[in-house]
């Protein structure tokens, strides 16, 4: 199977909207609003077009990933650090389990590094994201602004020591609907 990872084209959003909806339709741990979230995030200053990526299989869009700019706020030391949030990664049901999500994640990581970002946070499955180097954010003294099990609140250093000396709470854009 030939999988091609690339930046989303201006003609892709309608296809991506439906792809995300279908990918999360039967997901147990979902509010089933991921497609709406992406539409909202596209209109924000935190949206980075290069990190809105699709996976094509034989010319068909089969997967999507979005990394959005966020901040880690250290209120105690009055500092803010730029990071990225992975939300969502989505693969059409008929293409799931074929490594497409993993290729999207690795491709997005590479572009994020090229753009100068040092870390990515994700709220996700504790048995999936560690395959890509994600660890509980608490390892670095980083908290998420909601009550979710620690093993689901993860972070990845994209470059060595990019999280050195960084601690605080993840602050999402308001479109995520999270109050931090």
Task: Give a written overview of the molecule.
- By secondary structure, the protein is an alpha+beta fold.
- It has a single domain (3-176), classed as Gcn5-related N-acetyltransferase (GNAT) (Aminopeptidase), CATH 3.40.630.30.
- Helices cover 19% and strands 32% of the residues.
- The chain contains three helices and nine strands.
- Strands 1, 2, 3, 4, 5, 6, 7, 8 and 9 form a nine-stranded mixed sheet that branches.
- Helix 1 runs antiparallel to helix 2.
Name of the top-level CATH class: Alpha Beta
Q: Write down the overall geometry.
A: globular
Q: Can you summarize the main beta sheet? A: 9 strands, mixed
DSSP helical segment count? 3
Number of domains: 1
Overall pLDDT level: 95
| CATH-assigned homologous superfamily | Gcn5-related N-acetyltransferase (GNAT)
CATH architecture: 3-Layer(aba) Sandwich
Radius of gyration: 16 Å
| Helical residue percent band | 10-25%
The number of distinct β-strands equals 9
GO molecular function: acyltransferase activity, transferring groups other than amino-acyl groups
Domain N-acetyltransferase: 1-159
Protein name: N-acetyltransferase
Keywords: Transferase
Helices and strands in order, then pairings?
Elements: E1 3-7, H1 13-24, H2 34-41, E2 52-57, E3 60-74, E4 79-91, H3 100-114, E5 119-123, E6 135-136, E7 142-143, E8 153-157, E9 168-171
Parallel strand pairs: 4-5, 7-9
Antiparallel strand pairs: 1-2, 2-3, 3-4, 3-9, 5-8, 6-8
Helix pairs in contact: 1-2
